[in-house]
Amino acid sequence: MPRTYKSPRYWLMKSEPDVYSIQRLAQEGLAGWDGVRNYQARNYMRDQMQPGDYILFYHSTTTPPGVAGIAKVAETGVVDPTQFDPQRDYYDPKSTPENPRWIMVKVAFVEAFSDVLPLEQLRQNADLAGMVLLQKGSRLSVQPVSPEHFKAVLAQAKRAKLR
Q1: How is 113-158 classified by DSSP, letter by letter?
Q2: Is 0.85 topped by the overall pTM?
Q3: If exposure means fewest CB atoms within 10 Å of the residue's CB, which of 39, 70, 104, 141 is most exposed?
Q4: Domains of the chain in sequence order
């Protein structure tokens, strides 16, 4: 029987697979989604994400880019430690422990697809019309997904026998 994923909200989160892949999340089970330095993406994580929300885990900047599996928000409101470390790429000298600018969420592994569901196939799915990911100029690494679009992506992955 296929899994059903019911939650108050759904998301898509992008990661470059050579930086952090769905396979690595599967091995680790739980990870902090650190290094987000876009205010809108941060605000989604800080203000709207809740434990139990499901995530389409998207592999970006790869060939082909696409949805690689499912994760779940495990914890919210976690201060991103990379902002305080001058040796890290995501260091922010204007952020202090007393007044941190950047938060992260912890995500838990749920399911990896056998193959990535490519972006080009998603674009061909009429049920995904209006999905934020498919809108021109959409580059946010964290973005909301409607329940209908989440369900349509899962149905497409099932049809493609990726699950």
Answers
A1: EEEEEEHHHHHT-GGGTT-GGGSTT---SEEEE-HHHHHHHHHHHH
A2: yes
A3: 39
A4: 10-159 (3.10.590.10)
